[in-house]
Automatic annotation (TrEMBL):
Keywords per UniProt: Cell inner membrane, Cell membrane, Membrane, Transport
CDD domains per record: PBP2_NrtA_CpmA_like (cd13553)
Organism from which the protein derives: Ferrovibrio xuzhouensis
Protein name: CmpA/NrtA family ABC transporter substrate-binding protein
Places the protein is found: Endomembrane system
Keyword 4Fe-4S among record annotations: no
Keyword Cell membrane: yes
């Protein structure tokens, strides 16, 4: 055997072995691809249109689209801004939208028939916190006399509504109405603003069967103003203050027309803010699609909070696009990157102003739903007494942690999420908490006892008749 022939044989063997190795790798790769393909849900509907309002807390939707999380689940999603919350809800009900970024109170109110009647469910809570209360420069100057300064000479936070009460009383003595804007009658903003005002001895007014203005017996008159119009309405003097999500509090600072006095984090620490809403019919008709969109939204929320909010600067760039929030990146960044500016130049660290995933933010807790229902009852939107069990059953018919945990388990099985990031053993109720501006304890299992413990508001079997509160 010649040396040359031996070398050729050795080389051929090496090529053969390499070929076998490459073939094995190729087979393994195809197998893994097959597994990945198998993990993808066979969705019943892959082209979807979701609605949103131009607020920074719509971020999970924008991120799920921009980062390809929807596509990973076989979903081709169009995101469409809506004119206001009513239009948004109506279009979900009619099927023009497959789902939407919603106020936490919207699915509940629709399901119990306050306003439009429809069974709306949520498998995903979009965020915690994110709102603020802003007053005009004139009102702020009047309030400052009643706010103590901290050691650094700046106003001491959190600022309580007791500092606003003398201002409201002065307006009333002069025969002038004190007006405040909020975004919708069943919005988190309405309930947070009412909670803050009432904690300072200011009655924000009642609703009744015949009068849904919410201004019966009110010291401060609350009315609806669309979020993007808040700053200009304040500047025009039509309202004296407002409660809204970002970037519209920071916009008031940016324009020099108002001062945010408190964030909702300071009113109720880590309060649930927005949810993703779909009709019960959609969830029933398209169960795999519902799981797929929930998976994508969970991944988006994880991305927004991971590595100590390292992705927030990129998120700001995404949200600043005209097709999403369309506000100045500097204004959006003021709150999205862990700070909040109160008076011009008074920027303070508020790392949890926007929370999208940590603290189990995306899990739809029944007790969160019950809190909103207690506030609806407190102010007369739920016109009559309801037993504790009614609150629990209503919450369970709307909030769907079962869908959420099923989607979460799939993500864990696929290696896209970690087991400890989800409350697997939760019964849907958070522990009782007193982390409110007034220190009153809320226990979601005892809604009526909670309602009765609040100093201003309907209690027991009280009802609003005409302009009077009757019964007991």
């Amino acid at each position: 055997m010649s040396a040359g022939w031996a070398e050729e044989k050795q080389a051929a063997g090496a090529i053969g072995r390499r070929g076998l190795l490459l073939a094995a790798v190729a087979t393994m790769t195809l197998g893994l691809a097959g597994m990945a393909q198998a993990a993808k849900l066979d969705v019943e509907k892959d082209e979807l249109k979701f609605g949103f309002i131009k607020l920074t807390d719509m971020a999970p939707l924008a991120v799920a689209k921009e980062k390809g999380f929807f596509e990973d689940e076989g979903l081709y999603v169009t995101l469409e801004p809506q004119a206001n919350w009513k239009v948004l809800l109506d279009r979900v009900i009619t099927g023009e939208l497959d789902g939407a970024h919603m106020l936490a109170g919207q699915p509940l109110a629709a399901t119990i028939g306050f306003g439009t009647k429809a069974h709306i469910v949520t498998p995903f809570s979009m965020d915690l916190n994110g709102n603020g209360i802003t007053v005009s420069n004139e009102v702020w100057q009047m309030m400052k006399a009643h706010i103590p300064n901290g050691p650094d000479g700046r106003p001491q936070h959190p600022i309580k509504a007791t500092a606003l009460k003398p201002v409201v009383d002065k307006f009333k003595a002069e025969g002038k109405p004190f007006k405040m804007g909020m975004v919708f009658p069943v919005s988190t903003h309405n309930y947070e603003l009412r909670y803050w005002l009432a904690s300072g001895g200011i009655n924000p007014g009642y609703y009744s069967k015949s009068d849904i203005s919410g201004q019966i017996k009110a010291d401060a008159l609350l009315s609806v103003t669309p979020p993007p119009q808040m700053p200009s309405t304040l500047e025009a003097g039509t309202i004296n203050g407002y409660c809204v999500g970002e970037p519209w509090n920071q916009q008031a600072v940016f324009k020099g027309i108002g001062v945010p006095v408190i964030t909702d984090y300071e009113i109720w620490k880590n309060n649930p803010e927005k949810v993703f809403g779909i009709t019960a019919e959609f969830a029933e008709k398209y169960p795999k699609t519902t799981l797929a969109l929930t998976k994508a939204l969970i991944r988006a929320a994880m991305w927004l909070d991971e590595n100590n909010d390292a992705n927030r600067k990129e998120a700001v760039k995404i949200l600043a696009k005209s097709e999403y929030v369309g506000a100045d990146p500097e204004v959006i960044a003021n709150s999205m990157t862990g700070t909040f500016e109160y008076e011009k130049g008074d920027k303070r660290p508020v790392p949890d102003f926007n929370v999208f995933f940590r603290y189990f933010a995306t899990y739809p807790y029944y007790s969160d739903a019950v809190w909103y229902l207690t506030q609806m009852r407190r102010w007369g939107q739920i016109t009559e007494f309801k037993a504790d069990d009614w609150y629990a059953q209503t919450a369970k018919s709307v909030y769907r942690p079962d869908i959420y945990l099923k989607a979460a388990k799939m993500l864990v099985d696929e290696g896209k999420a970690k087991q400890p990031d989800f409350p697997w053993d939760s019964d849907g109720f958070r522990k009782p908490t007193a982390e409110f501006i007034d220190g009153i304890t809320y226990d979601g299992r005892k809604p009526n006892a909670y309602i009765d413990s609040l100093p201003i508001g309907l209690k027991g079997k009280q009802v609003v008749e005409g302009t009077d509160v009757t019964g007991g």
